[in-house]
Structure prediction request, 361 residues.
Amino acid sequence: MKFSVPLFLVSIGAASAFTAPAAKPGCPPLQMDPKGFGDEYSEIKDASQTAKAAPKMSQALPFANRPKFLDGTMAGDVGFDPFGLVQTKMDLKNYREAEIKHARLAMLAAAGWPLSELFDKKIAGIFGLVPILDEANRVPSVLNGGMGKVSPIYWSACVLFAAMTELYVEYGASEKPGYYPGKLGFDPFGLYPKDEKGQKWMETAEIKNGRLAMIAITAFAAQEFVSHIAVVDQVPFFFKPIWQVLSDGVPGYIDHANEAAESTQGIFEDLSAPSAIVEAAPLVDAAPLVTPPVEAITAPITAPIVEAPSFPMPDFSTPAAVAPPPPAMSAPVVDNTELIEAKRKIAELEARLAEIGGMSR
Prediction:
């Protein structure tokens, strides 16, 4: 944006001063020579043409009239002022200054919020510090609590930096020619275009991303306050690698990268550890216990009904009678006839063998 907002607003009321008066018949009209005005004249002329070309209806709210001072000359200006907050040219300048500051701060916060939830504990572990995240991995905030965990040195540095920035804007950058809200001259990488069209595009991109960041950081704080879950855990596919999301959320998914890393780490641990004596265990203990599968029972099993025997209750009122001794067990009767016959035949055989032995002599 080549001209400043105050100069543009002043030019709206003074544009008639640079128009030619009505000429009388036969007399040439008087003309003002623009050569003596230089760049100021061209800037005022461009602003006057832009104001005349501004649409009557608001671009953001087509059913409403365009606010008086929102004519589209500022980057990101679409005529959105439903409450009529801008009443003067100074209001417009102050509101844009506040908007661009909050937009830049919100873009930093929208990036820093999830990054702190991902890396705060890791960085604190490296330097031996206490993490400031809570049990649910949420960052400290006004709604989440935990603001007391942040070091006072950090708060002091933030206040000092903000104060220096305000002083520079108020007494430094705003006094330079061609200043507009947010123009601090900070471009260390030389990304700001040189042509007017490119500059307008980059300024519009900055304010649009800043407005989106202000909505996002508000949503972060509200989501964590209501759900008590960190933003990076609510929508992990936005903040974590896809393989980590699948490993944590999909049952049965195998993270081959982590598995290979763990196996390699185990190998090096085994090589570095001292050798241990391993006692041989019995083969019976080493054999895995195999449980045979249980076949489905198709037919119902009915257990036989057993009636419990009934016994008469003893009478404890009278002294117990002495039970008679059990009858003597008699030896079973054995038939010895076959045994006697067998002995007789054995004796006959021995006699015959003796006779045969005598004959052979």
Observations:
- DSSP finds ten helices and no strands in the chain.
- Residues 209 and 324 are 110 Å apart (CA to CA).
